[in-house]
Specification:
- The complex is a heterodimer of chains A (108) and B (119).
- Chain A is mostly beta strands and 108 residues long.
- Helices cover 0% and strands 45% of the residues of chain A.
- Chain A has no helices and 10 strands.
- In chain B, strands 2, 4, 5, 6, 9, 10 and 11 form a 7-stranded mixed β-sheet that branches. In chain B, strands 1-3-8-7 form a 4-stranded antiparallel β-sheet, with no helix packed on it.
- The chains are: A mainly beta (108), B mainly beta (119).
- Chain A binds chain B through residues 2, 30-31, 33, 35, 37, 42-45, 48-50, 52, 54, 86, 88-90, 95-102, and chain B through 35, 37, 44-47, 50, 58, 60-61, 94, 98, 100, 102-107, 109-112.
Chain lengths: 108, 119
């Protein structure tokens, strides 16, 4: 498959839990990685592999997978989590890299 | 801590070649795929391609006919050439390191550099 699909926009009330989804056939074979991007800044890796956080990423961020869908969950969303979130994965051939279209998260 | 820094012209004329260099510091070139990613204004991320530290390359099929990526291990730099550019190539260009094993992820990113294509 050559596509990863994300919902364009999601909103969450402050302190509540939100799940952002990423769908694609390649996710049956490869884990997704997730990136947070704030305006004017480079993306930052927040989740990789089965459910791994780089140093410095709060533990309210978690990842999970089911079939052809990957999920990024933010448990207890904070105002500073308002950003664009992108998923990424290898394609089904394993030779190329895909990005989802991004999800704009609004914290209300 | 690996740091990446893009450099190159911020303005390129249509039909000419966009050339950018990424300087790697604070880490080893070995073991990683060295990648270019771009983001048109107001749009999402697009993977352009990467070069493995051993020299093999892969490219986005939509750009493959116009792109080369090279690696200079002695200078700890890798470079992007995008040929025959048009206004659609205007974007922020990022270099990044891609770790690939059972897990695949971009762990370090440059700050990005805006390249505009205009006469």
């Amino acid at each position: 498959s050559s596509e990863l699909t994300q919902d364009p926009a999601v909103s969450v009330a402050l302190g509540q839990t939100v799940r952002i989804t990423c769908q694609g056939d390649s996710l049956r074979n490869y884990y997704a990685s997730w990136y947070q991007q704030k305006p004017g800044q480079a993306p930052v890796l927040v989740i990789y592999g089965e459910d791994n956080r780089p140093s410095g990423i709060p533990d309210r961020f978690s990842g999970s997978n089911s079939g052809s869908t990957a999920y990024l969950t933010i448990t207890g969303a904070q105002a500073e989590d308002e950003a664009d979130y992108y998923c990424s994965s290898r394609d089904s051939s394993g030779n190329l890299v895909l990005f989802g279209g991004g999800t704009k998260l609004t914290v209300l | 801590q690996v740091q990446l820094q893009e450099s190159g012209p911020g303005l390129v004329k249509p039909s000419e070649t966009l050339s950018l260099t990424c300087t790697i510091s604070g880490g080893s070139i070995s073991g990683w795929y060295w990648s270019w990613i771009r983001q048109p204004p107001g749009k999402g991320l697009e993977w352009i391609g990467h070069i493995y530290y051993r020299g093999s390359t892969n490219f986005n099929p939509s750009l493959k006919s116009r792109v080369t990526i090279s690696l200079d291990t002695s200078k700890e730099q890798f470079s992007l050439n995008l040929y025959s550019v048009t206004a659609a190539d205007t974007a922020v260009y990022y270099c990044a390191s891609f770790y690939s094993s059972s897990q695949n992820y971009f762990d370090y990113w440059g700050q990005g550099t805006l390249v505009s294509v205009s006469s």
